[in-house]
Structures are given as C-alpha cells and as structure tokens.
Amino acid sequence: MKDHRLKALVQVAESGSIRAAARAMNLSQSALTKALRELEESVGAELLMRSYKGIEFTQAGTALLTRARLALSILDKAREEIRLLRGGAGATVAIGVTPVVAALVLPRVLREYERQQPDAQIRLTEGLLTTVLPGLMEGNLDFALVIADPADLPYELEFDHLGPVPAALGGRKGHPLAHAKRWSEMRDAKWVLNLSPGSQGNNLIAWLEQQGIDALANTLHCASPMLMTELMRRTDRICIGPAQLFADSLFAHGIECFSVRPLPPPMSLGLLRLRGVPLSSAAKPLATLFERSLRI
Question: The domain 167-265 belongs to what CATH superfamily?
Fold first, then answer.
C-alpha cells in the first residue's frame, strides 16, 4: 500500500471532491482517480461513492481514512526523526494538556524542557478527553495529559496513571450555597457542566444516579473550561472540577469550594498515547518531565 495512494484518500476527505483534491496535490483528475482505484484494488473494497451530494465514503473508506491519517502522520514523524539525526533543525512536539496540569505544572515543565531542547517547537491543545481522542487516533498529537476512566478508553490507546484527581464543587465567592452540607440543599442550584463522555460533569451525573440523588434540574452544558470558569465567577452557576484547580490561588481567583458531601470518588490523571507507537526523541523527554512532576 503506497503512501501516495493514502495521501490521495486523505486529500479527497479534506477537499470534499476529487477535482479539488487533484488541484491541491497538483495532479490531474485522472491520475488521482487512478491512485484511488489502485488503493481500492489493494484493500479489496470500495472506498468512495459518487452521489448527487458529491463524494461519500463507504464504511470501509471511513475505516481506512482514520488509519491512513495515522500512518501518514507516523511516516512524517519518522522522516523528522531521521532529519534530526542527520543534524536538521528542531523537531515539533504536539500535546494535549488538561487545565489542572496547565495550571499546576505546565510552566515549570516547559522551562525545563526548553532548557533541554532549545530548538524544539511545542504545540499545545486543550486536553479535554473528547478533544484529544481524535488527535491521538490520527497521529496529530504525540501524547496527552488527561483526566479519564481508563476502562472507558479505546484499546488503541495506552493510559499511564499518574495520580488521583479528587473532585470539588466550586462557585463564586459569597455564593448563598457555598456552606451547604447536603445534596438536598442543592435542589434549586444552577449548574454549568461539561457533560461530554469521560468528563467530571458526566461522572457526577452517573454517580448521583447511583446514589439515588435527584438529577440536577437546572444545568447549562458547556465544553469550554474558560467559559465555565467565567460563569462560576460572574453568576450563580456551580461547577464540579479538580479540587487542586479550585485551590490554586491564581486560577481560582473569585471562586471558592463548596462544603457539600459526599462527592464522587477521584478520577485518574494520566498520560495518554497510542499503544505500540514509540514517542519520538523530542516527545519522550517532555513526557518524562510531566511524569516526574505529576506521579504520586
């Protein structure tokens, strides 16, 4: 399976049509069509269908597209590794970082890494689980530091547990419910929660159901940590998040932890990466620095 055929498949997905993909690759339409036909022959399945909507991927095409992106990304990383070994310019490391890691250890880890690898470039992505999963599966991220339940992760990903993340409820300072002790006192509370799979908000909803506690009636769904934080500071919305984050003086300015108990058990903080794919020579020392700073 030649890489130019995989590139053709990926480019069609990104461009939306064979004509646009051929133009982007500086190929004739007939040459691109031939590459796609040869790819279909090599895998023994139809990958694309033409319809009145344009080009559509078959189920086999969609499955191969994900793997093609990953394969091309790994090849690019291998070429970069070889270039570095031959004295080329600095490498690029792409990582996802969850907010608690960003607030507590990212600054000092970056300082140390920049001292060790002054020519390396780093690309940072918000490390919420739903954000980093596609990037890891397609090879666009080297690794991610996330809060997750390892049992819910795809087999293709390897999770190295670094420590527990206790939960806390937080809201603005002076909130009338800040000193509530029991969940029954939170019946009329207003919430802002990230309810995406694997999130602490989603974990809270499942835990409340297990405990037989009434569901949260007034909930605003939000997947942005920044927006959730601002709504906590500026309104009566309450959120669940890492206790370490709500205790940080800079991040939690204007926010206080609530007294309600009990709370869901801690989730796991860990380093997430593709199973069986070694980290590059530039990514490995950065991962090691995070592991040393976070492992409990």
Answer: Periplasmic binding protein-like II (3.40.190.10)
Q: How far is CA 267 from CA 50, 158, 200, 228, 233, in A?
A: 46, 16, 8, 19, 24
Cis peptide before 262 (omega within 30 of 0): yes
Query: Is the separation of the CB atoms in 12 and 18 below 8 Å?
Result: yes
d(CA 147, CA 208): 19
DSSP structure class, residue 153: S
Mean pLDDT by 10 residues, the chain (296 residues): 79 84 85 85 85 79 84 74 60 92 94 90 90 88 93 90 96 95 94 92 95 92 93 97 92 94 95 90 93 88
**Packing angle, helices 59-85 and 3-15, rounded to 10:** 120
91-163+269-294 and 167-265 share one CATH topology?
Answer: yes
CATH class of 91-163+269-294: alpha beta
